[in-house]
Specification:
Layout: H1 14-23, H2 48-63, H3 70-85, H4 92-99, E1 104-109, E2 114-119, E3 127-133, H5 145-159, H6 172-179, H7 182-206, H8 214-226, H9 233-244, E4 249-253, E5 260-266, H10 270-283, E6 290-294
Antiparallel strand pairs: 1-2, 3-5, 3-6, 4-5
Helix pairs in contact: 1-2, 1-3, 2-3, 2-4, 3-4, 5-7, 6-7, 7-8, 9-10
């Protein structure tokens, strides 16, 4: 978070210290000297904290001869964030940072922890995948992330289901009536519809129809903006501007309240979208965004050494 405090309980240093604490449940930790370097923008909704957690967990567990599967390492990262840093995140970011493969998207069932690699190769479909880092500040720990999670858990309890994923899209109307609460109904509607969008994206990608997921990305952003209420002016401007400039689809990424936008575009329109984003921010008196072309790539792993395939599941 930019803090220069040397207190392990504060600032970015909290993350590696928290990982070591969580790893101690699995065995004795040897002394290590760590040098941290990277180019994931901080505070941009791009899971820089999960990337740090997973890199540290992978390195320290290997140096300490603690044999953990990728899923187990992901759970170590989640425990570090939940119990020591104090952010009630799920395990999606950590599993993506550890288990992703090049030219694939990772489909995760966070209840069973089952994963599946889904073909995702934008260039093969004549597309470009862009990340636009806005000038808005992303501060997950101090945002309303926890309150959104609380809303979802409260809605599930009132409906008598383990989680909102157990509400079928066909039951949304009756569930809304049962909740009798506009805020909780909106949170529920986003979760149920978003899960359906994820499944539809998986279906399209497995059918080789990558370009067709664009409208689903945009619909996801609208839901995050209106029902989950975690967007902000800069993110909304970016999504709207990119779509108007010809993007196939766009949505905010990360925990919300700032950060970045993921854009799927035809390769021929990439420069138009870059130009449109810069012009849009300038016209609103905002500092220009950073635009990066990205590709789906492999997760954290020591070069030349495969991770254990052992799993506790």
């Amino acid at each position: 978070d930019g803090s220069e405090s040397t207190d392990p309980a504060r600032g970015w240093l909290a993350y590696p210290f928290a990982v070591v604490r969580a790893l101690q449940r699995h065995g004795a930790i040897t002394g290590v000297d760590l040098v941290v370097d990277g180019d994931v923008p901080l505070g941009a909704g791009l899971s820089s904290s999960a990337a740090l957690e997973c890199a540290v967990a992978s390195a320290v567990s290997e140096l300490s001869d603690i044999d953990l599967s990728g899923i187990e390492l992901g759970l170590v990262g989640q425990a570090a964030e939940n119990e020591y840093v104090g952010v009630p995140t799920g395990v999606m970011d950590q599993l993506a940072a550890l288990l992703c493969k090049a030219d694939h998207a990772l489909f995760v069932d966070t209840r069973s922890l089952e994963t599946r690699q889904i073909p995702f190769h934008p260039a093969a479909s004549r597309c470009a995948l862009l990340v636009i880092v806005t000038t808005s500040r992303h501060a997950l720990a101090s945002s309303e992330y926890a309150s959104r999670r609380h809303d979802c858990e409260l809605a599930a309890r009132r409906l008598g289901v383990p989680a909102l994923r157990d509400v079928a899209p066909s039951d949304l109307e009756s569930a809304t009536i049962a909740l009798h609460d506009e805020r909780l109904s909106s949170r529920m509607r986003h979760v149920v519809a978003e899960n359906a969008r994820v499944l539809e994206c998986v279906r399209l990608l497995e059918s080789g129809r990558l370009r067709d997921i664009g409208p689903i990305l945009t619909a996801s952003h609208v839901s995050l903006r209106d029902d989950y209420e975690v967007s902000c002016r800069e993110l909304d401007l970016t999504v709207e501007g990119c779509v108007q400039a010809g993007a196939l689809g766009a949505r905010m990424i990360g925990g919300g309240f700032g950060g970045s936008v993921l854009v799927l575009a035809d390769a021929d329109t990439e420069e138009d979208i870059r130009s449109a984003a810069s012009s849009l921010f300038a016209s609103h008196g905002l500092r220009g965004p950073s635009v990066m072309r990205v590709v789906p790539w492999a997760g954290a792993l020591r070069a030349g050494r495969p991770r254990s395939t052992r799993s506790m599941y």
